[in-house]
Design brief:
Elements: H1 2-33, H2 37-47, H3 58-63, H4 68-73, E1 76-77, E2 81-82, H5 85-101, H6 106-118, H7 127-138, H8 143-156, H9 162-175, H10 180-187, H11 190-211
Antiparallel strand pairs: 1-2
Helix pairs in contact: 1-5, 2-5, 5-6, 6-7, 10-11
Length: 212
């Protein structure tokens, strides 16, 4: 009986999540484009679109969230590098439908977080929430995969607004405490420098304490 109850609760939670996300999508589209019928039409066309210009789709990530290369192929073209902010804006709309359908997909959530960072909207809507949710799953990944996520994420930081970059750096320092030097070299932020100083000071105190 308990198993059936749990299954029914899970099904109810999934239905409630999808409805909530769908309402949220409509609200955000009206909020951002409700004053412009042509813009609204374009947004809905993107919303129902499956294809992207670079041959990779959110459907690929939804079906194989463990294929980390798919995450970054949405944002980094093999031939031309970063896909550009205009394209990222279109991806944000296109991804909405998949976020409505897939509740706990680490790949979709991480890419959503990156999109919000790149657009300077990390604290708007659920950008931070989805990135943090993805990172909980990423903690369980193999080390080589976690490092792949780190290094590919660093490639995108040059295209983020300063505020987004600072927010992202704080998260990366927390998640990768042993990579503080590499992180500082990638962004050379004041926050990164303070982390290095604190780490060096801590090691120095331990060394001095060991001598004494």
């Amino acid at each position: 009986m308990g198993l059936v109850r749990n299954m029914l609760q899970r099904q109810y939670d999934d239905i409630a999540y999808k409805r909530r996300e769908n309402i949220k999508t409509v609200y955000e589209l009206c909020r951002d484009h409700g004053h412009d019928n042509e813009a609204m039409k374009k947004e809905f066309e993107l919303y129902f679109s499956h294809e992207t210009d670079n041959g990779r789709s959110f459907g690929d990530i939804a079906e194989k969230p463990g294929e980390i290369k798919y995450w970054f192929e949405m944002l980094i073209s093999k031939d031309e590098g970063f896909v550009g902010l205009e394209y990222v804006q279109a991806l944000k709309t296109q991804q909405r439908r998949y976020l409505e359908e897939y509740r706990d997909n680490s790949g979709l959530n991480y890419v959503s977080g990156l999109i919000h960072l790149l657009l300077g909207e990390f604290e708007l809507d659920d950008g931070r929430q989805r990135l943090e949710l993805a990172l909980r799953s990423i903690k369980q990944f193999e080390e080589k995969d976690r490092l792949s996520i780190l290094y590919n994420s660093q490639k995108l930081m040059d295209y983020m607004p300063e505020q987004s970059k600072d927010s992202f750096m704080k998260i990366l320092y927390r998640e990768y405490p042993n990579k503080s030097i590499e992180l500082y070299e990638a962004a050379k932020s004041d926050y990164g420098l303070s982390v290095l100083v604190d780490q060096f000071t801590g090691r120095l105190k331990l060394a001095i304490g060991g001598v004494n």
